[in-house]
Write a structure and sequence with these properties.
With 223 residues, the chain is α+β, with helices and mostly antiparallel strands. The chain has a single domain, classed as Jelly Rolls, CATH 2.60.120. The protein contains 3 helices and 10 strands; from the N terminus they run βαβααββββββββ. The strands form 2 sheets. Strands 1-8-5-10-3-2 form a 6-stranded antiparallel sheet. A 4-stranded antiparallel sheet has the order 4-9-6-7, with no helix packed on it. Helix 1 packs across helix 2.
Amino acid sequence: MANFNIVPIFAAPFAAVAIDEATQLNPALESLFMSRATDAYRDPAIRPDSLCFRSHEDVFEWQDEAVAQLRQRMLAGICQVVMAANSYSEAEMHELGLQARARFTIVRPDGCIPAATAPMASWFALYCVTAPATAPSQTNSGMLRLFALRHAQMFIDAANYRLRAPFDTSHQVWHPVPGHMAVFPATLLHEVVLNRTDANLVLVGARVRFARHDEVGREAPRW
């Protein structure tokens, strides 16, 4: 028998992060976002959708206390994930420059967020402010789906149809939970599938990029 060792390659990091004090923070965020789901705050670059409101990508620039707390907690969580996925020491991580753009999204009943990547960023985070309960028959309602595309050109036959994890070709999913945040590389194609409940799903998405200490201060490409 041949001597060999199978190892996973081309792995993509993914983390689910619990945000501290979210129980107290989320009601204030929900109230604020619902009050600002108006044309004045709608991103004009995105085609209007009555079932899915998406704001300007400037939420982290707001002066509201609840948003300031959310920004601090989200960025801290993202930095922890990035440090864990890289070989930076804590001191080196503190020297990195960071830029972030965030928007709030209200996925109404029968709404969804179409599949996309997060351009001009290295990481993307999706925080759940509020999520409706789902029926047992609709467990995929409003979930985040991350598409596995590296096998898109693969010839499928009996020898690779039932690959075991982590080599399988299936897409990955994450169910939004209030107070929790998904963090993953910005290049991953992702979507929030149809909200099949009668209540709103409220999310905050942030795309983030970093610079090494010797690059801080250089002009970054336009978002």
